[in-house]
Amino acid sequence: FPSHDRGGKNDPMGKRLRTIIINLSDDSDYTGGYLYIGKKVMSKDRGGCIMFSSDIEHSLSPIKSGVRYSVVFWLNKENIKGLIRLI
Question: What is the residue-wise DSSP string for 5-17?
Answer without folding.
Answer: SSSSTTSTT--EE
